[in-house]
Amino acid sequence: MHKSGKTNWWRLLAALMALTLVAAACGNGDDDVAVDTGSESGTDGDAGDGGDGDAATCEGTDEVTLQLQWFAQAQFAGYYAAVDQGFYEARCLNVTILEGGIDIVPQQQLGSGAADYAISWVPKALVSREEGIDIVNVAQIFQRSGTLQVSFADSGISGPADLAGKKVGSWGFGNEFELLAGSRSAGVEPGTDYEIVQQSFDMLALISGEIDAAQAMTYNEYAQVLETINPDTGELFQASDLTVINWNDVGTAMLQDAIWADGTKLGDAAYDDQTTRFIAASIEGWVWCRDNAGECVDVVLDSGSTLGVSHQTWQLNEINKLIWPSPGGAGVMDKALWDQTIEVATSEGVLAAAPDSDAFTTQYAEAAVALLGGMDTEGSGWTPTEVTLNEGGQ
Amino acid sequence: MTARGFLGKVLAVVLGVGLVAGGWELFKAVVGVNDLKMPPVSEIAGTFFEPVQRGRSEILAVFLLKSAWFTLKEAAIGFVVGTVVGLGLAVAMLRSQFLDRGLGPWINISQTVPLIALAPIVVTWGRTTFLSDVQAVSLIAAYLTFFPVAVNGLAGLKSPDPEAVELMRSYAAPWGKTLLRLRLPAARPYLFPAFKLAATLSIVGAIVGEISAGVPGGLGRVILDFASRYSTGPERLYAAVLAAGLLGLFVFGLTNLAERIAMRGQPEVAQ
Fold this sequence. Notes:
The structure holds two protein chains of two kinds.
Chain A: H1 2-34, H2 36-44, E1 62-67, H3 77-84, H4 87-90, E2 93-98, H5 106-111, E3 117-120, H6 122-130, E4 135-139, E5 147-152, E6 167-170, H7 177-185, E7 195-198, H8 204-207, E8 213-217, H9 221-226, E9 242-246, H10 247-250, E10 258-262, H11 269-291, H12 293-303, H13 309-323, H14 335-347, H15 363-371
Parallel strand pairs in A: 1-2, 1-3, 6-7
Antiparallel strand pairs in A: 3-10, 4-10, 5-8, 5-9
Chain B: H1 3-31, H2 41-47, H3 60-95, H4 97-112, H5 115-128, H6 133-157, H7 162-170, H8 175-213, H9 219-227, H10 234-262
Helix pairs in contact in B: 2-10, 3-4, 3-6, 3-8, 3-10, 4-6, 5-6, 5-8, 6-8, 8-9, 8-10, 9-10
């Protein structure tokens, strides 16, 4: 009896395992639905447009994953455009874009091998590098900072010195360093001269008057205020209702979105070559979004169906301002701004010491720019447009 | 159900919704909360029928339905995996005193680990092995699901009278037969409450997993998306949260239905 009991027990276990496998297989089927953000649109893009090689000449296609900090929006337009327009494909790359979530830290995904490249702000990535994750800045896409401190005009805050005695919102988690350094440079000590309030990622606290100055990205939260109805007037808030502190002007701006690569793989000929091609096609995407802003916004809108049309149009315009002009060519590091970023990071205690010289390299971005030949990768002639925002960013 | 009983139920639901809506508006008026913090009920209801994006014909309600379907699929896989694992654990712990003592504490510890700590580990681990992000989300849902099934399952499998177990033994019934013929049927009144809990938990797990891992397509993404743009459209976030609640209610109803079918002809056992 005991023996047969055991047999049945194993039979049951086998049945359970089979069921688990079936469930896993079902999961596989769903897979195609979920990760199609890039590949689906890639098929209708005309490959080879602008690239110097087309898919037909590829000996093989490299599978590449790119981890973003957040989900699809115009902040990442260039990468989505490069997928959609077949720029990656033309460089023998099959790129899967991994969108960000609340708990996804791009440079950690890169460091753990879960992604091949990652987009990350420079100071945050350097903190991870200091902690021992070997990642390297291979292309500095954004050449200036998009962070503002926004107030209502009647609060009288027009420079960092005016923050004294105010309630100042910040997102924290590494987004506050420009504010801390900027106010200190004006002789106003954070925490003692003004109160720092943890700010959630919408602009409700500023609009409802809970804080006097709110952290905002030019391309996102600042626009959100202008998409909100002013309860006093019944119309949208106007830019004239607001004053901004721009850290680029104060001189404490820190570099933001850059492409980071795995330092342990750099130096390997195949990865080096792939990195150069990846950067080249990404820059091509950004150039296309600069020169075809309307179509580029459509590409972004297709990848996230709830995104507001006017909000994304505004966002792309602002992102273009952060990229263009790129005097050394798109993706090539501006050494002065790198130094400023390090200076702020070390003086604020974000970094214990300045990173070694391997933390960034212009080698791949320069090779990528060279690969793009006659394409205008500096964008010195580009001028921003005026974007009209609608209620709710619609 | 009689026509009268059905009408009564419908009336109760309508009354319940009306009470909540009325209470919402009353609270706003009495305390003086503005529309940004608590949008009017009419606006929340109306936003379901507005286009999800300017220039598109799809209304928010349809978009939310599609998103809910996506999340439901993730949750369903999580529910199945969690239930299988939970039942497996219950049977294993019933079979072996050693496993019962050894696994018990771990099963309890598993539920004290916060989901937000676990989710990025599962996603990163999945990406470096063979799991897609969607499967990782299902795994997170399964992680929440297996617990009530294992705990209630074990109690249920142990529930038959010792006399009944003795009787099976006197028939020289093998252990497996006792399990299938006696213990599992006896466990049903214990298992179904666990299934109801597990079903709603699987939805919670899927949504939290989506938000955590940044998986597009489901309700989690929609909630995160609308939350990050709250001030420009608060009613949209409330609509998405409402949709998540309704999805939870839907799976709860499904397990209820399953219980009725499985327990047909059985006297109800009070819990």
